[in-house]
Amino acid sequence: MRLHPAARQEMASPGTQRAAGCTCPHLSPHPPLSHLPLSRSVRVQWGYTNPISEYVHYSLFVNVSIVHYDSCLISFISLPPLLPSLHRIKASGLKLQLCTNETQATRESFVRKLRALGFDVSVAQVTAPAPAACHLLRERGLRPHLLVHHDLVPEFAEIDKTNPNCVVLGDAAENFTYANLNEAFRLLIGMEKPVLISLGKGRYYKETDGLKLDVGAYMKALEYACDIQAEVVGKPAKRFFESALAELGVPAEQAIMIGDDIVNDVGGAQQCGMRALQVRTGKFRPSDENHPEVKPDAYVNNLAEAVDIILQEL
Amino acid sequence: MRLHPAARQEMASPGTQRAAGCTCPHLSPHPPLSHLPLSRSVRVQWGYTNPISEYVHYSLFVNVSIVHYDSCLISFISLPPLLPSLHRIKASGLKLQLCTNETQATRESFVRKLRALGFDVSVAQVTAPAPAACHLLRERGLRPHLLVHHDLVPEFAEIDKTNPNCVVLGDAAENFTYANLNEAFRLLIGMEKPVLISLGKGRYYKETDGLKLDVGAYMKALEYACDIQAEVVGKPAKRFFESALAELGVPAEQAIMIGDDIVNDVGGAQQCGMRALQVRTGKFRPSDENHPEVKPDAYVNNLAEAVDIILQEL
């Protein structure tokens, strides 16, 4: 897959406006990949300032929220039609890492469900906020009070939770009770320097019975009440994507993020130096194409189209 | 009550720093009232740019949160010791208006409780957010979905609530369930132009069993999820204080706010052109004396001291 240097130049011309608030100097907004003069005969340079080897490994980040926008605890209703595309990625030899902000289940449970549905991945192929939070807690000697979904608690099994000196907030769903929120608040406000670690900052998500407030909304409630700022360890945090890249063993410029969330997937990956495609499925909204801060490197109509293009151009 | 013009001049000298963010040109921070050269023989001019008649009526706003910081639904534990001061105000002929952000009960219920405790006030003497919200709803033809305390619902008895086109948020307490918050969110996100009316923006408050998140925290959660800004009708909103002044029938410069909340009471009243005393009880924290944006016109140790000073100087 390659863009002709001249075509890249044209896209980055003064006529192309830079997305406000984006600080990545090497990234600029582009028309949909499908409109680009792709050629099998030349390998893509992606317009990076540092040229990449012609035989670069393209690692595909697949954001699980395009695999299923429903909670993985309830159903994987959107997964089956995507399986052929995922199998094609695997068969191509491309490395694949699933990046999810899912905090309603452990990675083990997540992988079990994927396998049951016919997609064989390992736990190491899943980057999720809870393990990132555990890493941070150990690093800083923090003992968390957990306000998370009960199915996520095992991820913190080996973390000392006595005499808490921070609060870890996940998408607690039914555990977001008045009593539990007050308890987390009281612990925070009682700390000399309140530390709130949030496993994401999503606004809302969709389940079979409708839209639900996501962890970000509750994070904002606690931030306001305590006059503090939470530390976010899920997408779009830089450390989250760095951890995924480390797991893959590839530099940012050799990885492609495919996601449906303009801020968490596309914006987060781009800020880490990756290129990112936005699929027009799941969370995608037509208004995303006019987002004031984030511009994907390309749009694709669905995962199958993204995989088609990438595999054709390898 | 009066400050000698020379003393006022001295207080407003360049050595006295203006509170950041305050836009009221005639208000400046002062040392505690008790430190001022008060004199019975001269009436206070309060340093306003427009001179006030010597025989001005001082109307006393008593913020109920200094009368009781506990929920009025549970107990009025702090009220009895304050009764003598409240009776003294009444006997002096000063007008009195209770300004509360209480949204866990109707004004009728609130007044009944005050009377049962020996303080006889009328419903008209209570300014509260719910009636202000009703006024706004009628004015704009809005039909609310209510996420409020069940004891407050009667305040909205005469408001059309069919086919909601806005959400009214109060301190719903136990009604702040995951399901109710999701329901309010879904209604908002489904509106072409979501309208969220909040009966206050307090961060938290204290009850006998500890600190509780206040309506402001939940307001922030919905604001973030829907990417909107709520309209606040309780303190410190300007329209709230204007409504209280209208009820009293006095201009702002003739009213004094006494409150324990540096932002909601003191800041709100000052922005409306009133002077405001902060009592060092209830919500008061020593750090309030270094608040970056709001400086009370004076500090008093408690309500009795405020009343002593005001009555002495009449």
From TrEMBL, chains A, B:
Keywords: Cytoplasm, Hydrolase, Magnesium, Metal-binding, Nucleus. SUPFAM superfamilies: HAD-like. It is found in: Cytoplasm; Nucleus. Its EC number is 3.6.1.1. It holds the Pfam family Hydrolase_like. Its main location: cytoplasm. It comes from the Eukaryota. Residues 1-21 are annotated as: Disordered. Belongs to the HAD-like hydrolase superfamily. This is Phospholysine phosphohistidine inorganic pyrophosphate phosphatase. It comes from Geospiza fortis (Medium ground-finch). The lineage of its organism: Eukaryota, Metazoa, Chordata, Craniata, Vertebrata. The gene is LHPP.
